[in-house]
Amino acid sequence: MTMKAVSLSAMVLLITVSGCSDSADTNGDGSVSRQERAEEMRRDGYLAMQPGRWRMNFAFTEIDVPRLGDEEKASIKAQLAKGASGLSCLSEADAAKPGPDFFGGEGAEDCSYTHFDIAGNRVDMALSCGMGDLGKAKMKLDGTLGDADFNFDTDLEVQVPMAGKIKLKGSMTGTHEGECRGDE
């Protein structure tokens, strides 16, 4: 049996027997450390993502902003989707254990995992990110993650100083596009 077949068989077995959700936050401090995330990935049979150039796209379908009309809401959804979508270069080292900044999107900084659960190719994670002068963002991602693509349902809550709390629902997709080019 080839190594690829063994890995595929192990992944199918993990997906079949999984169904219980566990938490990678083993010390209960509300943040998932690099060590806790690595242990969760090792325990649950994570297949590493391909290093290189990744294109990420956000699309928002719902928005909750008090006191704004439909036209303004549509404009905010479009601006946030455009601002968060973009290109990223995933290094060889990070491909095995992607940091939260990789999933945070463009403009996100100082991201940390607040929840991280993986079983085979199913991922359930939550991030908290700074957005510079724009405020803070909390994001929940739930979906599938493969070595060359991912697809998550997304819940995003942005705390903006001038507008208050903005809640959005949508999706985030990512596709591996080959080697990094330096313009990511």
TrEMBL record:
It holds the Pfam family DUF3617. Residues 23-33 have a biased composition (Polar residues). The keyword Signal applies. Residues 1-23 form the signal peptide. Residues 34-43 have a biased composition (Basic and acidic residues). Keywords: Signal. InterPro entries: DUF3617 (IPR022061). Residues 23-43 are annotated as: Disordered. This is DUF3617 domain-containing protein. It comes from Sphingorhabdus buctiana.
